[in-house]
Write a structure and sequence with these properties.
The structure holds two protein chains of two kinds.
Chain A lengths: L3 E6 L5 H4 L5 H63 L1
Chain B lengths: L2 H16 L5 H17 L4 H17 L11 H20 L3 E6 H7 E2 L7 H13 L2 H12 L4 H8 L3 H19 L2 E2 L4
Antiparallel strand pairs in B: 2-3
The chains are: A mainly alpha, B mainly alpha.
Chain lengths: 87, 186
């Protein structure tokens, strides 16, 4: 058997039968709602991205500060040792 | 559809991009055709109604992306409708249904009224059940929706020659297997 099923219909489709499904007002309303949702999602994603960038910048800054402090200690130690040798 | 009609339709589309209310004209023009197309692929009035509404909502949502390619706007609507049907069947894991009018099959096959019996109808149904789904889709658009091959290729995302080949193969099989005359050559 195939992936589809063929059904034979004796009656013709009429335009009258489709009238009860015709409602452009509802289509327009759904379109407006989906458009609004899309905007909300876009704004949310935009702020989320900004927040991520800010967090990333803060993390890099902290890491730089930490790295800066660490290298300063080593320099001081070297200087002290140099002084000890001279004396 | 004449050149002038297509141009007029494009004007309505342009207006609809700015004012969705203008799209109502397109909705009124194509609702029945798209509904019937969906009904033929679902055999369920309520479902066809829902999918039809969703088709027009999607068309409105993506109207900005629509590009005129020389076809009537309906080709784009058929494409969206086809995608909606496929999405429905994928989601529900059901078997795709093609509900075909007996009269249309009689129009396609040249057979006298006396020669047209229940057995032959059953045979044609069985034959179409065995065909690959994409072949049935092409036949449906060609014979039940009266689309030309260029439009079918656009709707089903295939080449024009591919659409032609599928139709000819299906018709050839129909001719040889049942020894009946098919009115149409492709």
């Amino acid at each position: 058997m195939g992936k589809h099923e063929i059904r034979m219909r004796r009656q013709r489709l009429t335009a009258r039968g489709t009238d009860r499904f015709k409602n452009y007002g509802a289509v327009l309303k759904q379109h407006e709602e989906e458009k609004r949702m899309k905007k909300i999602v876009r704004v949310f994603v935009f702020f989320l991205l900004i927040a991520l960038v800010i967090i990333l910048i803060m993390m890099v800054n902290r890491w730089e500060k930490k790295a800066g402090k660490g290298s300063g200690k080593v320099q001081k130690e070297v200087r002290i040792r140099n002084l000890e040798i001279r004396t | 559809m004449s050149e002038a009609e297509i141009r007029k339709e494009q004007e309505v589309i342009e207006r609809s991009r700015k004012d969705p209310k203008a799209f109502g004209e397109i909705y009124e023009t194509y609702f029945d055709r798209i509904y019937n197309y969906l009904f033929r692929q679902t055999d369920d009035e309520e479902l066809a109604g829902d999918l039809c509404s969703q088709t027009f909502v999607n068309a409105l949502n993506h109207l900005g992306k629509y590009e005129f390619r020389g076809f009537p706007f309906s080709a784009w609507l058929y494409k969206i409708a086809g995608n909606e049907v496929n999405k429905h069947y994928r989601k529900n894991k059901g078997k795709k249904v093609f509900s075909i009018e007996e009269l249309k099959v009689k129009e396609l096959v040249e057979q006298s009224d006396e020669g047209w019996d229940e057995e032959l109808i059953t045979q044609v149904i069985n034959y179409m059940n065995e065909l690959p789904t994409d072949m049935v889709q092409v036949l449906e658009l060609r014979f039940f929706e009266d689309k030309d091959f260029k439009e079918i290729a656009f709707i089903l995302d295939m080449t024009e020659s591919g659409a032609k080949m599928r139709t000819y193969r299906a018709l050839d099989k129909l001719r040889t297997q049942f020894n009946i005359k098919v009115k149409y050559n492709g």
